Amino acid sequence: MLFFASCKQSKKQLIISPYDIHLGVVNVGDTMAYKISFRNASTKDSIFVKGISSNCTCAIVSSDSFHIPPQATKEVSGKFIGKKEDTGSISQRIAIHSDADSAFQFVNIRAQVK
Length: 114
Fold this sequence. Notes:
The protein is mainly beta. It contains no helices and 9 strands. The strands form 2 sheets. A 5-stranded mixed β-sheet has the order 2-9-8-4-6, with no helix packed on it. Strands 1-3-7-5 form a 4-stranded antiparallel β-sheet, with no helix packed on it. The radius of gyration is 18 Å and the shape is elongated. The chain starts with 13 loop residues before the first strand and ends with a strand.
């Protein structure tokens, strides 16, 4: 007789919203605020966001590392600064590093800098 045991593995799912931020037209010298929401979909485990980084100095995020309890949400503020050297259509990425099942996730920021 064979017995099959099922192991329920805890899933550490971090849901980020929005994945795409469209800021529209940003004039040189202006600052546009944005928010990113992080939700821990896990029912058991906390998620540790180890770091948030951008591939440019125009997209700044106000928080670096934090814990999110099970079923909780945390909102992080950021700002996009229109810089003269970035005029034109801009597409930047913000990388989120966590101990969730998907260790790296990304948010895209788009703007037209004039």
